Amino acid sequence: MALGERGGWDKSESRYCGVETDFNDDMPHLLSFNLSSGGFDFVVASLGDLGKHSHNLMDPNYRPSLMEKDIGGGSHVLPFAGSDLVLSPSQWSSHVVGKISSWIDLDSEDEILRTDSETTLKQEISWASHLSLQACLLPSPKGASCANYARCVNQILQSLNNMQLWLRIPLVKNDDDTTDFIPSGDSWELWNSFRLLCEHHSQLSVALDVLSSLPSANSLGRWLGEPVRAAIIHTDSFLTNARGYPCLSRRHQKLITGFLNHSIQVVISGKLNHGVPSVSLDSALDHTGTNVESSQRHSLRPYLDYIAYLYQRMDPLPEQERFELSYRDFLQSPLQGHNPLFHIISDEFCTIEFSNYYLSFQPLMDNLEAQTYETFEKDSVKYIQYQRAIGNALVDRVPDEEASSLTTVLMVVGAGRGPLVRASLQAAEETGRKLKIYAVEKNPNAVVTLHSLVRLEGWEKTVTIVSCDMRCWDAPEKADILVSELLGSFGDNELSPECLDGAQRFLKQDGISIPSSYTSFIQPVTASKLHNDVIPCLCAQVSPLEAISFSSKCALALQVKSHKDVVHFETAYVVKVHSVARLAPCEPVFTFTHPNFSTKKSNQRYKKLRFEIPSDTGSAMVHGFAGYFDAMLYKDVHLGIEPSTATPNMFSCCASSSVCFVESYFDTGLQIPAWFAIFFPLRTPVCIRPGSPLEVHFWRCCGSTKVWYEWCVASPNPSPVHNSNGRSYWVGL
């Protein structure tokens, strides 16, 4: 493993580092030298190299048009690579990324060159597919126009098995200058044009060429939401430290560690540009502690060692984040995703787990399972906040002089298996107040556990269990405090307003509701992976190139994906957002306050929002909207996952302002398992140009039997209204 271990828990593909190689006619030696002596995990090798074992075979200057034509007029194309037997199948699959010939130019004005390029591209990708390579590196488009190049690649993608195609894109954004091959000086525009022509195909990814100069931080942040698979770092991008070794600038360091944190693999490219001190040439220790003799030392080993140093210096993930690794960018229908139903397809190199996501849980119509309750109950931060809020409410409700004589009636509506009952009793004990608790729960299975808990803890004289839907219960007395935990990732998306409206009839006129209010928030995001995985899968890797692609059996399973299905693009998903670019600060959407004794109350809502994208970001693609919530439990005690106000140890991500990317655009978000963000996809992604505001409309609609959301983009390009009349996604009353 090139970059070493980080505590044994890091299983991401960014542990592996590759090297871009020059033409070599001996593939076994090339692989052995770079893996054994160099310490790299894989090579990016010209497809002219692959399989060669003799100088008599084709070199990188091969052109189909130069091959002799037979009498019948057909092309007699000689083999352009040798035997596939020079390496084992596992070596091809795990340690080689193919590199398409760099001379090809499918948009050339020269018809012969254009035809040769198309023939060679198809030949080389076909050969790579035959070798079961997991990826091929496509050369950068030669000019601003890449329509024919993209057309040919799109044709190949239609019949490609499971192999990924990496389009090489230089990481460039010049605000003032334009280049011959990059429109507006922004390489993102080049990538965007190419992927639009290829219909956002999920097997088309990006390999970024990291150069010596970098664009602005906001511009870099865009790439987090794009399907970047590799960062190719050129040796001339490295500086020289005081000891003569290669190092990177602080901005490059932040960029590379950010890439590593987002499972983007590093590839070293170029020649030795630094004079390594002579003492290290005689005998040196690599980053794994292994002694490497000078006669065997790879010339690019100092660059690899530096990348390994950056990798191992990264802060270890907290235990909570390690638990959430498998949930990153893993779409879940609300509530159901905490207990997904998996079936598994495996082969030698990968395991894919597919989930049946569309048996969506209905919070008022269905009952939670024990495993789901257990997941929610592990959220200690949430119950600490509830305990604080209840304690403050008890102190405000009952003066100290009446604490021993006055009993507060507290009702927990939606008591589940009792965590809020326990939090309430602990708050009463801390404040010295007396409580009488009604625990109302509609799930008969949870009620069984509640009875057992009450007997076990000896709460029979304090807690009365009510097995009933809160909307149908006739309370024997009015409550002083009404406590509930009905909040979803978007605040009101699990029907907290409807439930509490029905329950507040047994709350005293001056009674306290906990929570007292909550607000939903959204922000536009670039989220290519989420958009492509609307019918999702989760892959667990075991080979160095594991996330580049899936093996052949898994590719068959992936055919169940239906990227153009309107129903799936009109459904909101709970997701641990990770590989996304947050393009603007969050804006509030809907607010609900409890109790609400208004005679004209309605839970229907409509909000028009306007987002301004920072001008130095450049153009960006909006794939959808990330949604959050913030709740005021009681007075100054709040709970939420909205990035700028998130409860400590619940969600730590500096995405609250347009300047957040300057210092922390690669920061890791930290969330508790009970609440991940919610993702509202757009059926067709919207491209935002610099200085062009994004106008969005959101509705919360209520019918006699269901509640649903509708959303659309009005500017710069209108989109259809998603989920009209709740046709695709709704929550039953």
> What is the H level of CATH, i.e. the homologous superfamily of the largest domain?
Divalent-metal-dependent TIM barrel enzymes
Instruction: From the alpha carbons, calculate the radius of gyration and give it in angstroms.
Output: 29 Å
- The name of the CATH architecture of the largest domain is Alpha-Beta Barrel
Described by the principal axes of the CA atoms, the overall outline is: elongated
CATH top level label of the largest domain: Alpha Beta
The overall average pLDDT, rounded, is 81
Give the total of domains. Answer: 3
Query: Biggest sheet, open or closed, and with what strands and sense?
Result: 8 strands, parallel, barrel
In what range is the share of β-strand residues? 25-35%
Helix content: 25-40%
Q: What's the assembly state of these chains? A: single chain
Question: Structural class, from secondary structure content?
Answer: alpha/beta
The total beta strand count reads: 31
Spatial order of strands in the largest sheet? 1-2-3-4-5-6-7-10
- What name does CATH use for the topology of the largest domain? TIM Barrel
What is the distance, rounded to the nearest whole angstrom, between the alpha carbons of the first and last residues? 53 Å
Unreliable stretches covering 5 or more consecutive residues = 51-58, 279-285, 335-360, 536-564, 651-672
Number of helices: 19
